[in-house]
Amino acid sequence: MMDVAAMAGVSQATVSLVLNGSPGAKLSDATKKRVHDAARELGYTLVRRGSRAVPEDRSNVVFIADEITTDPWMALAFEGARDKAYEFGIHVSLAVSHGDRDTEQMIVSQMSRLPLLGFIYGTILTRRVDLVPALEDRHTILLNCYDGDRALPSVLPGDVLGGRTATDHLIQAGYRRIGLINGQQGVDASRDRLKGYRQALSSNDIPFDSALVKPGNWEPLSGYQHTHALLDLDNPPRCNLLCQRSDGARVL
Q: Considering the entire predicted model, what is its pTM?
């Protein structure tokens, strides 16, 4: 749906209104046509709700997130789980625990009264989690996190592979001075991306230079500041474009 919105030059909400045929939406015929044309070109078909029978004994999934307002990713993950579950006639409820064990225990106890298929437990940062025993005893899927024993199924990002693939791409393009502005230290994603970066360098016989790695925090200002710090090095990373250092010197 986001791809359709981008191609049509409208918001995702507009795409939803058009494709659902919402009668109260005040949209021009030209806008509707752009949305339908983009959806047709991309081969996108709106999921129709309630097309399958609801399982009588297991019609609910509970999605527990540690945070939902401080970061967009858990909200997007919840929407994805909800939309897929709707295809099977299953309802997904959202609960936010803020990582508090007592709150999580209360959520599990209350929601277990429902005809329950299972739980999804998601975190905004990739990390190890210490679950309440009640979750370990249920059908629980971990999202962006993992338990210490790796006993539960986990859906995790491939940060090592991502770091290696990105670095390999630049190496294959002919670059050997490659900078990395990483995320905050002590976080799994930052550790694994750095690992992939170093793997790519090692596989191509390029020595690791710690001066080329900067610990950021995923915020725009941090990226901006560390970019200037890298360009101010005596031997900075190589750039595709002509860059200018803070002292006025130009770097190819």
A: 0.71
